[in-house]
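ASSEMBLY PREDICTION REQUEST
Request ID: AP-0331
Submitted by: J.K., bench scientist
Number of chains: two
Total residues: 869
Priority: normal
Notes: Please return the full assembly, not individual chains.
Input sequences:
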Amino acid sequence: MLAYIIRRIFVLIPTLLGVSILVFLMLHLTPGDPAELLMGERASEEALQEIREHLGLNKPLYEQYGLFLKQLMQGDLGETIWTRQKVWIEVKQRFPATIELSIVALFISCFAGMILGIISATKQYSIFDYLSMLGALVGVSMPIFWLGLVFMLIFALNLGWLPMSGRLTVGVELETITNLYILDAIITRNWAALRDALWHIIMPAVTLSTIPTAIVARMTRSAMLEVLRQDYIKTAKAKGLSQFIVIFKHALRNALIPVVTTIGLQFGVLLGGAILTETIFAWPGVGKWMYDAVMQRDYMVIRSGTLFIATIFVLINLCVDVLYAVINPRISVK
Amino acid sequence: MFKKTILILTLAVFLCAGTALAAPKSGGTLIWGRGGDSVGLDPAYETDGNSFQVCDNLYEALVFYKDESTALEPGLAESWTISPDGKTYTFNLRKGVKFHDGTPFNADAVVFSIGRMMKERNVKFHGKGWDIPAQDRTPEYWVSMEMDDTIGAIEATGEYEVVFKLKRVEAPFLANMGMDFADIISPTAFMKNPKEFLRNPVGTGPFKFVKWVKDDQIILAKNTDYWDKAAGPYLDKVVFRSIPENSVRFLELKAGSIHACQFPNPADIELARKDPNIKLVSQPGMNIGYLSFNHTKEPWKSNLHLRKAIAHAINRKAIVDNLYQGMGQVAKNPIPPTMWGYNKQVPGFKYDVEMAKAELAKAGFPEGEGLPEITLWSMPVPRPYNPDGLKIGVAMAADLAKIGIKARVVSFEWGTYLKRQREQPEDMDLFQLGWTGDNGDPDNFLAVLFDGLASSSVRTQWHNEEYHKLILQGKQTVDQNKRAEIYKTALKLIYDEVPVISVAHSTVITPVRNEVMDFKQHPTNSQRMKNVWLK
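STATUS: Completed
Returned structure:
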């Protein structure tokens, strides 16, 4: 098992090299010049030249790439163009916000999606089945942007139950250790901050979870339907086991494999792509950060940020593969 | 007698109420909602509004702009004298001012703050001074304001006296010293860690830096030792919150969780007007959105009638009413009406299709015949002076079609647009662009934008000897009244020769909660919280 994991981690290297080359080439092909964007309307040719020189943008592409690799070998992700800060510090400041949001969203979608899927499967073609699958279809096709604003209008502006945006109310003090606010509040036993952080995360997490919930629900339903038709389920029922045991102990475990794959992939998507949710809810995470970097042509952020997200994605897939073995002993990792 | 008593009593009540209303109250936290985070907080190196609006409250410069105008008043310098030849400026500094870290403010701090931006550091400290570290990057504003060509040497000639020796007579110099890049920073704080100063700013301003949560909020606290006791600060804290989505930011204002919403969607302004808890603070922006010609090629270069035809053909009022959504005014001159030197005598171009057709015929293209399809470069991004370049481009093209000119709207990604525009390519006929003023000096519009003979990086490559001479004369005249006359003549020349069609000046409107008192917008778009208080 350990050897397998180590081998998989080594596979990361060619994957990331591929990603970095791709990103470099794409950056080269996209129009736009960070120096122009930094200076805007007031740019003079000399000033632009000085900035390009300073940033090393006037060097040939292969030289820039070589320099980037060299830095990377030394564990240096480089410095951002706009904020003149080490990229890893910028990541460190923003990634916890994204992780926190994604985990809560994933938790909601696993819980809600699986429950919906299981009930739909056991009560196939019932009104509940139709309604929940229709709901899932709507969930998949709902524009997050619109949904977020509607939630805000209803729950924040009209009912006043939840805060509109942000991670904490201005004025609520919280000592940050991990920058995962919920965890920090628990560690420092700051219950007021914990309540506030939870209140703030509900709307963005629910908004972010709509699509994964719908996907998980549909996946669970079809996997369950397949398993429920198998002979050993009949045997279990014939033995006189309760419906509950049959479904949750016998059927669900076998139906889980495709569901876990889906959930793993969704987690990767959530981590890298919560751009819209982060933008609407003013959630200071990596999605919004990467989006801004693309708009401002902050090459350093785009390069290193993409690599970082790719690494996380690959690592999550590895976790999913390892989880398979835990769920299903018939699969062994070699 | 009775009536008289009543009258006096009523008056007394009114007076009391009046003073009670006017007396500022200390305390409270003001939350300012804006669209993005600051990039950095070292005024010498920043280029964006979101950074400067925080710097405005942390730092101060030698000269200040007055409230709601760009007229100058003493700042960290109590007074100044200019030598008869206009090349030596001596500043007498305010005594007893301290930076937030306790470092005393003096002439050496000025030499350090300004001197660090010079390419060749010709500086002299009064005391021990500091070894100024090498520049981490180009100080963009310093370079674009051509300060290296202006300032020859900076010398501290006393504990509280600094002398700037200029290389040339440059009338806008004093106004430049009020800009953000010329803010004075604490040298000791900078020297502690030059690379991190932009995240640990220390100045003399009414508020000091507390904390920065990236992409979320910047927190400032009252500087209780602020030197100007007569002028605040009143707020305990100011929080700059980034809420990227315009409509969400406005909803936050409605819900009362922020006190001000910068740059709302124009459609939300109407909603704000109807909300009893919100008031609107507006200020004509110090900007110009314009349409100009590719002066490096024919027929634009030498066909005055053609340029006039286009000026009369475009319905600027309709554009301002519908696309600026009321947040703007039709421009007559390419500098805003609030600026000194503005020429009221210039009549401006009337929207008149018949007149445009007549000019077009005089230009040699009756009904547009003989003129091939032209390109109209339209801006891809909203800017303060132009809310929607593409829609405005389409409207302009439709206007031109009415007199028989076929125009195709063209656009590029913003960086590419700026870059290619500067090259004045063959495939560009008309282009939209604009400008937001830096220092309230007409030179900052008229030289930078239209004097093509001065530099090839001037966006409008209009080459006119007479205009060039006027602009040079403006730079070299120190007396402001005389300069105003020069700029009025230059503006008349622009009206006669039509190198550019001034489209509109936008109005900056900020909705704020009713409890926010004494908040004034500044033409330079700086957001000063010094006098602001909460009811």
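REVIEWER COMMENTS: Residues 2-22 of chain B form the longest helix (21 residues).
SIGN-OFF: pending second reviewer
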